[in-house]
Predict the structure.
Amino acid sequence: MTNVSRSFTLGALVVSVAALAGCSGMSTHQRDTAVGAGIGGVAGAVLTGGSTAGTIGGAAVGGVIGHETSKDKK
């Protein structure tokens, strides 16, 4: 299995787990944070060739972006 296909498999797994993690009980703010972390983790894994640091860093950045974009606009 190549690194790219392994990264896509890991990404699909992360997205599946995030989707099945019971988002129905989450607020919109929490759901957006979780979705951002999932997408960021996949992007980090793909961009760094599947490195652990890239995946975790991408998830962290994605979570922050998802959290910030879901705030109420005043």
Summary: The mean pLDDT is 81.
